[in-house]
Amino acid sequence: MSLTSKPLSPATWPAFARLVEKHNGIFGGCWCISFHLDPEGGKVPSKDYRKMKEDRVREGRAHAALVFDDRDAVGWCQFGPTAELPNIRSRKAYLEGLEELPDWRITCFFVDRERRGDGIATLALREALKMIGQLGGGTVEAYPEDYTGQKVSSSFLCSGTLGMFEKAGFKKTRKIAMHRWVVERRITGERPSAHTRSGRRSLPADLSSF
Description:
Order of helices and strands: EHHEEHEHEHEE
CATH topology: Aminopeptidase
CATH class: Alpha Beta
Helix content: 10-25%
Structural class: alpha+beta
Largest sheet: 7 strands, mixed
């Protein structure tokens, strides 16, 4: 098995779309759009999610490290600047303890049901961190689950596991739900980034969009 990775882009959109369609839109037709949505905005019909995601990809407002086996996408790790992914889980608890916003967020993973257990999520995370470095680096935050010793559905682990992130060099900063942690790592950038040029982001007066 020889796996490669490519960024989500207009060129890789067809492979991404085929993987999503193979799994009936994933998670009830999410199309990996839910973390992009304004948490204070009105409800968006799920029938619009595919177009919304494709529009974001073509506009350069959606990022992910796609893992390929030959020409087929078999999984991904979604990441992006904080403002690109405002709708995180356990958001109320997250905001209560927030001191500084990260430069980047890693919000979700997906792996082809036929390829689970092949280490694809771990590879996708590693490649996402490389891409973040290529885009300028900075502070990266994620929100993994810790179900150590318990059997749970993979749908509960779409944000990744705590163990996987710790092995990738992330450190726990605080707990925001029974099984959910905020973890953080600093990635050195290969070039200046608009997301990190001024250093860590201070908190805006209005947190409604974060």
